[in-house]
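Predict structure. Chain length: 341.
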Amino acid sequence: MIFAALLSDYPRIGDHPEEQVLRRAIRLADKGEIPPAEVAAAEDEMTRRAIADQAAAGLDLLTDGQIRWHDPVSHVARGLAGFRIEGLLRYFDTNTYYRQPAATGPIGREKPFLVEAYRFAVGAAAPRPVKAIVTGPLTIARLSRDASRRGLQDLTLQIASALNRELRDLEAAGAGLIQVDEPALARFPGEAGILRQAMRRLVSGLATARVLLATSFGDATPLLADLALMPVDLIGLDVLAATGGGGDAGALGARLAGTMPAETGLALGIVDGRNTRLEDADGTYESTVRPILQALRAAPGPERVIHLVTSHGLEFLPRDVARAKLSMLAAVRDRARREFP
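Prediction complete.
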């Protein structure tokens, strides 16, 4: 089975006046001219638009575009007890920033903080399944200030235990696929063992939801042996980083087939989410997707679930470019389905 999906976030603002409703609402709210409820209404509107764009492009799995998220770190940390949100820091090697959480006390979760937005997305005329997304415990711990000096491992495990309650509530709300984003892993490969322990806590008790562990911001394929041991259903990889944009995709496919358990699905980042350049669908398929799929299909075992995704979220691309990349992704999926039914 081959699916197409956006990895995570989507532009919150576009070039057209009707796509700038959230920017206007935030500006007016900052001046005290409108109540916070009007900002929330603008977030609702842009969430509907993000879902509509993905559906119009023909994607199989949708996200809410993470329209309500100001950044991937503080949004999750704000929902957990034991964190204080502090100043701005650069987010990896991008020109964007996140508010750094400071871990000041025991980490816990008092009430759901992602479930309401998930339910809204599902109910916002989403014509196809919506995946839930949460930033993972290692990334939250790595990008936070350990104010209580408990150490990275203890902090990561505490976050995982707290987030487990959120995942179980998302499952109860109907989430069939929950994506755990761990962009820190490719930057800190020595911490794969900590993440494996944390993932066991994170997914404990889930009965029906499948879990996708998504890596980004670097090549995580040197960690394939570690990733193969993660207690998840799918592993997400930035194929563009792994191949350098033009490496031997067939060799990568052979490595995936030989290392990852046959029952483990793959989310392959084949469309550049950090570059405005529009890829050619046929070229991407011929040079990257077909060689990988050929190697995977040649391996013994059951047919593997494949998600063709963007290498990163698309939030900081122009909205028209983001739309075009989604359509290109669906076109690559269509070719793959014809050749590998």
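Summary: Residues 249 and 287 are 7 Å apart (CA to CA).
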